[in-house]
Amino acid sequence: MVAMSAHTVPVVALCAGSATWLAMKREPGVRRARVLFVEDPLRSRRRCLVWVRLCQFWRRGTETVLRRREWWCVPAAVLLAVMGGSVLPLVAGAAAVPLVGRWLRRRAGARDAERGAAAVAALCGTVVGELRAGREPGQALLAALSEGSGEADDSTDGVAPGGRLGAAEDAVLAAARFGGDVPAALRQAAQGPGLGGLSGMAACWRVAVDGGAGLAAGLERLEATLRDERRRREELRAQLAGAWSTVVVLALLPGAGLGLGASLGAEPLRVLLHTPAGLACLTVGASLEAAGLYWTCRIVRGGEAT
Questions:
Q1: How far apart (Å, rounded) are the C-alpha atoms in residues 196 and 229?
Q2: What sign has the CA pseudo-torsion 218, 223, 224, 228?
Q3: What angle do CA 31, 34, 37 make, to 5 degrees?
Q4: What is the pLDDT of residue 162?
Q5: Where are the domains of the chain?
Q6: When comparing pLDDT for 212 and 73, which is higher?
Q7: What average pLDDT does the structure give for the chain?
Q8: Are 94 and 77 in contact (CB under 8 A)?
Q9: I need a labelling partner for 278 at 20 to 30 A (CA). Which of 94, 239, 255, 267 fits?
Q10: pLDDT category, 270, cuts 50, 70, 90?
Q11: Are 159 and 115 in contact (CB under 8 A)?
C-alpha cells in the first residue's frame, strides 16, 4: 500500500499537469471557434443581406433592360464614343432612344392586335361548339370565356393578355353570368387592340335575341370571315418579306461600311468625327439614310394597309 501510494502521487500530479497544459493549449482554439461560430453569424448575416440586395438590384436592372430594350442604344453609343474619341455618338444615342422605343411599342401593339384577332376567332369557334352542344347563349359564352382564361394561364400563344378579351373580359363575364347586356359589353371590349371582331359578335347576338335568328350560324360565318382575314394578312406579310429585307439591308449598310473601312486601316470614325469633311459627309449620309428608311418603311406599311 505504501508502494502504491508512493507511485500514485506522481501519476496524479502528472495527470493534473497534463490536463492543465491541454486546457491552456486548447484555449486559443476555443476562442477561435467561438469567434467563428458564435460571434461571426452577425457578420455573415450582414454579408448575406448585402449579397441579396445586390442580386435583387441586378435582377431588377436586368428586367428593366430586357423590358426597355430601347436603352440598349446607350451602351452602343458609349462604345462608339470611346472608340471615336467624340461626344457625337452619345448625342446620337440619346436621340435614338425615344425613336427606337416608339418603334418597339408599335411592334408590340401589332403583335397584341394579331393575338387579339386570333383570340376573337377562337372565341367564336368555341361559342359555336357550345351552342351546338345544346347550351344557352349566355352559358355558352361563359363556358367559352372560362376555357379561354384557362388556356391563357397555360400558354399565351394566340391569346390576348389576361384571357381571350384582355382587360374587358370581366365585364363580358359579368354580363353573361348575371343576364346583363352582353352586346353592349362585347362592343365595349371591341375597343381593345385587334378585338374589332367582337363588334360583329355583338351584332350577331343582338339579331339572335331580337329577331330570333340562329346565333350559331352567324358566329360560324363571323369566325370564317375572321380566319380568312388572318390568312390574307399572313399571305401579305409573306409577300412583303422581301421588302422588309431591303429595309434591314439598307439600315445595316452604314455599319458594314464603317467595319470595312476599319478593317482596311482607314480609321473611318476619326475621319467622320474629327475632320470638317468627315462631319459634312456624316451629316449628309445620316440624312439620306434616315430619308431612305422612312420612305421604304412608308411604302411597305402602305402595302400592308392595303
A1: 12
A2: positive
A3: 150
A4: 39
A5: 70-151+163-226
A6: 73
A7: 76
A8: yes
A9: 94
A10: confident
A11: yes
- What span, in angstroms and rounded, lies between the C-alpha atoms of 189 and 176? 13
C-alpha–C-alpha distance, residues 199 and 204, integer Å: 9
> CA triplet 223, 303, 301: central angle to 5 degrees?
95
- Alpha helices, DSSP H only, in the chain? 2-34, 40-67, 73-84, 88-132, 137-154, 169-178, 182-189, 197-211, 215-239, 241-263, 268-274, 276-305
DSSP state of 191: T
Cα separation, 119 vs 197, whole angstroms: 10
Neighbour count for residue 274 (Cβ, 10 Å):
14
C-alpha cell at 62: 436586368
pLDDT reading at 181 higher than 70? yes
C-alpha grid cell for residue 38? Answer: 458564435
Question: What's the confidence (pLDDT) of residue 133?
Answer: 84
pLDDT at 154 over 70: no
The number of residues making up the chain comes to 306
